[in-house]
């Protein structure tokens, strides 16, 4: 931390890392940040922060930032620094040529969950109305797209049901595939406080996360399931609830489709879902499944919090729906202390999804094929829209390899490092005629780019983020953009280079347009957010103050839907060649692929990723703590140092992916969620051997 001097003024803004959405006061001296102080009136953090947020300003000042646009004809050419005018006209001419030569569906783009709502909205608008295609996707594809699908099926909304305050009324907390004290530290602390006050804790996780056993907290049940068996274990909990008469029938009859419930109950009660059968495939002792189910159903207000350990599986959407089934069957929805709560990884993953970043949905989760919805947007945007859903990220890459997809505009996303099957991503990018990257740093994806448009940080722009509890908060400009333009301005410049004629002068006007087009945002404006501090959508005429807790008197879709969640094992199998299962996660001091936190003071606390290996598996391979080890999978190989620990069960290994050297995604498979294509990052069969280093 470099103390520059005493602050002269301060600006309240919102952290750009995780989905908690902590509010900070940036204390300034001129155009330099002196320090970031958690804001006591922030409704998501109430004056608290974690070590990531406090030092986030470090990456804004980092020397690695690219501040001038760059272009090149071929990726083998050196970059050429050019003016914004030249970069934008080069890009627009190439895009126009590609559209005229190969058709509008040969172009697409990716919105960022790290950028503001207004920026995500403008990128998808440019792609739909400017490029004339629905080939738009978002980095949520690789994290919480199953949440969007699964919760929409069950409840009718693609969002968590509670506010963070709700945890204060929970008697039982069920954490599935999440590590809140590392991934969402400020909310993790609130959860710990409630646990210290006496709430019961159930953890479903292959790894012994800190919550399982930490000072003053011990999980009542830890179900250390084999990676890939979430659906079986959650459905087995449902089996216990149904067969032991623990269903809240009054709730189900009043709020859910009774016939669908009966079909589901019959399915859940089947012997194949019994704890004894599920023990054989999940490795979780039957008595733990029974105990956890009984506690969840009878322990009072029971809340579920889950993370990417649920979604990043071939059955990610199925697990989300299985979780929703549990909550509905026990009546744990629609009041404080209960609910189904996805812990969102990125600061604005909820918002980027809300803003129409999926190829089949316009803002507000309305299907592109709906004529009336399309007509509303066409009238506002003044351009015809394609009624056909576009391509998802993996399909864009497939089409590029096949030669039918030629150009991509990527805002704030490093798909080469964050998406599965790195070789496939490289092949797709290499096959394109035009790759446009808009980012802070020359990231890995930029190796394949022809245009680099410098991005700006959250400190250099106005806008809004929407956190994991649907809370829309203002992001306020703390300093002038070091690169000259905020990201939303760059998108507008590109749009206008393609004759779109946009005239926004401030992101508040973009939000006004979003509000005019999106019923769940119709009461949102910058003035309102400034006055209220924040608001949780839906915010409209019916809910002018927003909605902290959803589905109080029934579901957005009408009756809650029980979905039969048959367990289908992943195609990724262990065997003699690859006997161990690799799963991945995050650590407290780093954020995602580390592009930002590695450029802050946080890097000192976790300078490298390690492979966690159980002592038995280590001994079998002659590996000692700190040794270099090689990970081999069917997809590829990488090398890192070993950390011997019984946090992981025998047969399971674990690593983080915050450092590019680790290249964890080189070894992951190309299997993905059946409904959304979310990659199966959490299950890879591997072999580990000693190595001499990279
Ligand atoms: Fe808060 Fe998350 Fe930022 Fe930490 S990283 S300060 S928990 S928003």
From TrEMBL:
The keyword Oxidoreductase belongs to this UniProt entry's keyword annotation: yes
EC number, as in UniProt: 1.17.1.9
Sample GO molecular function, one term: formate dehydrogenase (NAD+) activity
Superkingdom in the source lineage: Bacteria
Enzyme class: oxidoreductase
UniProtKB keywords: 2Fe-2S, 4Fe-4S, Iron, Iron-sulfur, Metal-binding, Oxidoreductase, Repeat
Domain spans labelled 4Fe-4S Mo/W bis-MGD-type: 8-64
Family: In the C-terminal section; belongs to the prokaryotic molybdopterin-containing oxidoreductase family.
Protein name, UniProt field: Formate dehydrogenase subunit alpha
Annotated gene: fdhF
Complete-protein stretch covered: 236 to 929 of 951
